[in-house]
Amino acid sequence: MVSNINILLLCSFAYLIAAVTFTPIAQKTQSAFVKKDYWILLVVSICGATLAPFLYFEGLNQSNASDTSILSNAEIVFTVLLALIFFKERLRPIGFVAVGLVLFGVAIVTSNLQVSSSLFQINTGHLLIIGSTALWALDNNLSRIISTRVNTARLVQLKSAIGGTIMLGIIFALGIPLQISAQQIPYLILLSVLGFGGSLYFFLQSLKRIGTIRTIAIFSMSSVFGLVFAGIFLHEQISAFQIIAIVIMLTGIYLINRKESMKHPESTSFGF
């Protein structure tokens, strides 16, 4: 898909199709929006569904793939730091060890202990990628707040619609042609409904049920699934280091889900 379609156009269409898909589900639910919820929704839509993808892919254009995959792990760090400092989630010492294990494992999975020298030569592309992960981290934490008050399907619908519309405006402003072939439409729909809308729905449900830190730790398993699927469908080789890293990540996720790793997350107060 990304080899034949402009990535901003792909993201915009994917978000808009996801919004249309979740509209019938959202209309069957009732969500008690208050004024501050609309502001939070606008911020998460701009940060998570517009600015962050734009910065990420602009950074990717100026960096190599290996550097990007490693720098993308900063989202875990930023998400945990924001949750601890500003959003009142708490970890016990074992929780910090667990997060550290997950982050260490993800770094190995994504790099296979092969780090290019360009990673240590900070350039504009690197800064754009890091900036995108910071915006996604803010999106994760603010989405945690609003997900406790707004129906998840409605939140997916509105966030996707706002983000997709703003990104479409950027596409028109940049003069990017709207070129998608008929053969790509079924794949685009599948990607939109499952890859964007479906994953966002489950992610928001997780934020509501288990909190931001646990969710982002488990969400990091996406790198493991990517590795496994690359081995199955693309016949890429999985190294012994990466297998060890998966075990490390699973250990960290087990620890972060033990009750004694968190300090009363159910009674979290966000101050909003």
Question: How would you characterize this protein structure?
Answer:
The chain has 272 residues and is mainly alpha-helical. It has a domain at 7-91 and 115-210. 72% of the residues lie in helices and 0% in strands. It is built from eleven helices and no strands. The termini are far apart.
The H/E string reads HHHHHHHHHHH
Shape: globular
Strand content: under 5%
From the N-terminal CA to the C-terminal CA, the straight-line distance is 40 Å
| Class by alpha and beta content | mainly alpha
Largest sheet entry: none
> Roughly what percent helix?
over 70%
pLDDT averaged residue by residue? 87
The tally of helices reads 11
Rg, alpha carbons? 19 Å
Helices and strands in order:
Layout: H1 7-27, H2 35-61, H3 65-71, H4 74-85, H5 93-111, H6 124-147, H7 152-174, H8 185-210, H9 212-219, H10 222-233, H11 240-256
Helix pairs in contact: 1-2, 1-7, 1-8, 2-6, 2-7, 3-5, 4-6, 4-9, 5-11, 6-8, 7-8, 8-9
What does this entry show, briefly?
It contains eleven helices and no strands. It is globular, with a radius of gyration of 19 Å. It is mostly helical and 272 residues long.
